[in-house]
Amino acid sequence: RTLRIGLIPGDGIGREVIPAGRRILEALPPSLGLKFSFVDLDAGFETFKNTGVALPDKTVDTLKNECDGALFGAVSSPSTPTKGYSSPIVALRKRLDLYANVRPVKSVAPTAAFPDPIDLVIVRENTEDLYVKEEKTYDGPNGKVAEAIKRISERASSRIATMAGEIALRRRRVRNSTDGVSGKQAMVTITHKSNVLSQTDGLFRQTARTALEQSRFSDAGIKIEEQIVDSMVYKMFRQPADYDVIVAPNLYGDILSDGAAALVGSLGLVPSANVGDGFAIGEPCHGSAPDIQGQNIANPIATLRSVGLMLEFLGQEEAAAKIYQAVDENLSEGKYLSPDMGGKAKTTEVLEDVIKRF
Amino acid sequence: RTLRIGLIPGDGIGREVIPAGRRILEALPPSLGLKFSFVDLDAGFETFKNTGVALPDKTVDTLKNECDGALFGAVSSPSTPTKGYSSPIVALRKRLDLYANVRPVKSVAPTAAFPDPIDLVIVRENTEDLYVKEEKTYDGPNGKVAEAIKRISERASSRIATMAGEIALRRRRVRNSTDGVSGKQAMVTITHKSNVLSQTDGLFRQTARTALEQSRFSDAGIKIEEQIVDSMVYKMFRQPADYDVIVAPNLYGDILSDGAAALVGSLGLVPSANVGDGFAIGEPCHGSAPDIQGQNIANPIATLRSVGLMLEFLGQEEAAAKIYQAVDENLSEGKYLSPDMGGKAKTTEVLEDVIKRF
Ligand SMILES: CC(C)[C@H](C(=O)O)[C@@H](O)C(=O)O
Ligand SMILES: CC(C)[C@H](C(=O)O)[C@@H](O)C(=O)O
Fold it and tell me: Taking every annotated instance into account, which residue ranges of this chain make up the domain Isopropylmalate dehydrogenase-like (chains A, B) (predicted)?
């Protein structure tokens, strides 16, 4: 089978890590029976500066009509407000209805601060909340006032919670087959702030709970837990090993996933996938890092893992597992690490070290 | 001078720590020339269950008409949505226009994870953002939809940033007088998400910047920095020693301060003050902790430090400094620590150990 993959490097180090993503797909063992074809697509702040649009229609149309999946690098945000510019990845998530942003965070090795292995995943709603970007500004009695809408729907809350439940099931299955002994409780933690936002976050909380109470989750022993978002951040930093799947509205998910990344040492390790029905875009969680661009020192691991995630959500679990395993081996051996990990290896050296483990 | 202090224990361990707060005020050295009188006031979920209102008008009126400051313990949130209940502390902040929530976070001793001393303060806007609690729910084509308003005003953004600048000035002055050598850069970091919320968070960002560019801050060498909220959480966990004053809209401030608390070991250490013009309410950052209530094991340190903060904002810096120093001595000696800190001391034992250092 040939999968057609859109490549959207974006800005900065996106242009170094996305080629690494392409390369690992091409290097997958032939025994998997997978073939790939690629199409290069534009988006980002550079694109905006050149053409006046950050996300060209051609990019969206090609993804919709030709592609099975895609890889997205990173985009630079303008350092001063720039008229007409708005984030292409946020737009892409909405235009392709990629309603879930899945961000697994896994520790490499025990540390003094975190002796127990961290292995959690944040499942972030990806289409609504404050990201609907409906804002207005008006003159009040004491100067300007601006308002934004936070929108939470039953539909989006239900499908993201269902996705979280399915991910909990899949993770439990994989855990049981690899280390039948781990004994980690399969659990989904619903994050919200319904003590203040009783209607919006109250709807998220209640809908997520109902979705997760479905018998296929409860019969399989998936526990449901809740945390208020501020307390979730606190707990995530105090006892990260206790968590499995965390489901959250868009903005809390954004904040929690950067927080979780800090726990495992570097944003350069943390992948994500933007997932819709039958489509997935892999995207490293890090930014465009203009300070290190062009030096071949960006950490490609987040992108390689994002390739794995994309494959997983395209139904290619075996190929995904190959990538995860090769990456884990690279990290635990620790011979070829990029500078953010305290190593000296170039982007391409890390990549080749991962590939040679296939 | 006699200061009249309202005491609002609220629920759970609030009823154990607020008496400790009263006791430390009474125990302050007479040489300070301060006297206190107290008035007990109701608020909280218990109050709601007994009377149908969580924040009685009498409490608000007494604070307004009779008091110079107050101490607030903690309130329990109902575990299921409860009609008519809404958080009394959120209401109190708005009704008394306590527009700043000031949350200093300071490490006790270097740890393996954080070898450099952490000493930062989060200055959280306390009256608007999503906390305006203007919500509505309607039927959409695919089920219920709920919306909340996030409101950001120029006026509130400007005064909170000015407050942050003033706190940075005061901190620098205190640092210079106690350890002329620390060399820590005085700095205010503006936290926002204007890459997504260009109008609301854009207004916060721009207004805060303008307020902090006033010559009395810039002439004193207060640096202005910015961080997008997700990246702020990441950086706060990676390099907390780099930060001094962090100013943020209400909700980000709420999340960031719980995150910062996790860095220094326990929420039981972290104080706050809700500050308006000429009035301040000290409030420990922790919750009502019903699981440990009534056992005399709650950590009183957050409350004792909140008493210090309250005094600081009522212009009693010398008295505040006495409390901070006694608390720091208790912690660094480490002989009387409560169970959350790995110790065995009772609430009252920690309190007496602090007091005996006056
Ligand atoms: C760049 C920004 C718009 C984006 C977001 O907020 O979703 C980023 O932080 C992310 O997490 O992918
Ligand atoms: C209890 C809750 C309403 C409150 C808040 O969100 O402000 C608390 O988390 C706090 O930080 O004081």
Answer: 4-354
Domains, chain B, ordered by start = 1-107+265-358 (3.40.718.10), 109-123+151-263 (3.40.718.10)
Find the mean pLDDT for residues B76-98: 88
The model's pTM is 0.95
DSSP-H helix ranges across chain A: 14-27, 45-51, 57-66, 88-95, 154-178, 200-212, 215-218, 229-238, 250-263, 301-313, 317-333, 347-355
Measured CA to CA, the distance from residue A51 to residue B283 in angstroms comes to 53
Handedness of CA A237, A238, A240, A245 (dihedral sign): negative
Q: Is the pLDDT of residue A180 over 60?
A: no
For residue A233, list chain B residues with Cβ-Cβ distance below 8 A.
233, 255, 258-259, 262
**H/E element holding A47?**
helix A45-51
The residues, ordered by sequence, that sit 6+ positions from B122 with a Cβ below 8 Å of its Cβ are B102, B103, B104, B105, B246, B247, B248, B253, B256, B257, B260
pLDDT at residue B108, rounded to an integer: 85
Of B131, B150, B236, the CB nearest to A148: B150
Check pocket membership of A50 for ligand 2, CB cut-off 6 A: no
Contact B147 A237 (CB under 8 A): no
- A325 in ligand 1 pocket by Cβ < 6 Å? no
Both tokens of B85, joined, read 């209940």
pLDDT-derived band of residue B82, with 50, 70 and 90 as boundaries?
confident
The pLDDT tens digits for B231-241 are 999 999 999 99
Task: Provide the pLDDT for residue B86.
Answer: 87
Residues in chain B: 358
Average per-residue pLDDT for chain A: 95
Among the ranges given (A98-102, B78-82, B106-110, B252-256), the one the predictor scored with the smallest mean pLDDT: B78-82
pLDDT in tens, B123-159: 999 999 999 999 999 999 999 999 999 999 999 999 9
User: In this model, does residue B180 exceed pLDDT 60?
Assistant: no
Q: Does A194 touch chain B (CB under 8 A)?
A: yes
Share of chain A above pLDDT 90, in %: 89
Distance of CA A237 to the CA centre of its chain: 19
User: From CA B252, how far away is CA A252, in angstroms rounded?
Assistant: 10
Burial, A79: exposed, middle or buried (Cβ in 10 Å; 0-12, 13-18, 19+)? exposed
Q: Is the CB of B102 under 6 A from ligand 2?
A: no
Helix axes B317-333, B347-355, angle to 10 degrees: 120
Contact B44, B54 (CB under 8 A): yes
Question: Is A241 or A1 the better-scoring residue by pLDDT?
Answer: A241
Among candidate residues A92, A48, A47, A85, the one with its CA nearest the CA of residue A67: A92
Q: What secondary structure does DSSP assign to B225-245, as a single string?
A: EEEEHHHHHHHHHH-GGG-SE
Average pLDDT over residues A53-76: 97
Report the candidate in A122, A101, A208 with the shortest Cα–Cα distance to residue A159: A208
CB-CB under 8 Å, A153 with B140:
yes
Instruction: Please state the length of chain A.
Output: 358
Q: Decide if A143 and B153 are in contact by the 8 Å CB cutoff.
A: yes
Looking at chain A from residue 14 to 33, which residues have their Cβ under 8 Å from any Cβ of chain B? none
Distance CA A69, CA A313 (A): 9
